[in-house]
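step: validate -> pass
step: tokenize input -> pass
step: predict -> running
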Amino acid sequence: MSSKLELGKFSFGMGDRFAHQARAQLQACLLAAKQGVDITPVWNKSNREHTIIGSEPASVRAAAEKAVKALGWKKSWHIDADHIRLETVDKFLGSSDFFTIDVADSIGRPASPEAIRAFVKKHPELIGKLEIPKISRPFKTTLADVERVAGKYLSAVQDAGKIYRHIAQAKGQGNFITEVSMDETDLPQTPPELLIILAAMADEKIPLQTIAPKFTGRFNKGVDYVGDVNQFEKEFNEDLAVIAFAVKKYGLPKSLKLSVHSGSDKFSIYAPIRKAIKKFGAGLHLKTAGTTWLEELIGLAESGGDALALAREIYSDALDHREELCGPYATVIDIDPKKLPTKAQVNKWTSQQFVNALRHDQKCKEFNPHFRQLLHVGFKIAAKKGDRYLKALEANEAVVARNVTTNLYDRHLKPLLGL
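step: predict -> pass
step: emit ->
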């Protein structure tokens, strides 16, 4: 199973809420290239984000094309229709060549008894002693185990197949990259569960190039990983081993790799990820989301004057609408309202105080993860400012762009890939 369009070994999902930072983001990939490491930029934006901002999918491609031309980028790049479902995919067909198929809502929806029986009959190799290279102990699975896992995940995989075929009918097989997302669910998938899922994906003939499983721990928006780093490292290594095994066993694309969603700012797991992908010779797709939007705010605050005043105003409005803004993101943020600064405090802050509270520098005593998370989900407030916000970005482009590039290259790509 293969695709004409193949994703590079190391790819980086770059969210750009307001479509103004593609050039600054691409600059980080150019810096990596100078160090001999090819990063494939993948500009991603979800239907939810387009709805909030009031933008259209074509705007993401237009911004990327402009950046690629301006910087003379000759390597591959892609536009990701992020977290799409069958009911939202059509508007992305014309501008996207990468589709993140989100089937988390279908996980746990019971598959039909006939589908479960057919799957089990087709895959007797999944029952009993599973020996997977580079996993020290074999797994033992019973018929009941496989039936239970198939019952939980088959409907989701079948949904992924329907969406994939819908896209393929419009764009042609092999003309786009397929990712399947299963991360926005309650429990992490175990290695045997992941193997069963991948077997089912192969049965659906989905030329999967990246898969985003659920890992142990919390991947909150814009802040560091919360959880047992050693447990994450064990899971990540075992998932890499399962993928390598499944590629050979089921004929999945050789380019298949793990995708880490909400991967921005997860500094404590970057070293284990770097070590694991080196050990396996594996690729990686890491998806960032609102990190760039926060760097825009940092750049505005750093610029002072009216730009700082606008940044303060955005926080003030976000504080007023905290519950509304946080509602859609309740499972991926942890904000203690008591630890949020008051409007009066922020209105007295200097540029440096605002920057120190927002920039993700864990060595800085003034860094406030609660302040950062609220602003992370507060891009809706900036969107409501309309041209006023966009003109502020343009007026302070040099400072904003420097922050965007530095954040992606120094705090993300360098520790992830050992640059």
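step: describe -> The chain has two domains: 10-289, 294-398.
step: cleanup -> pass
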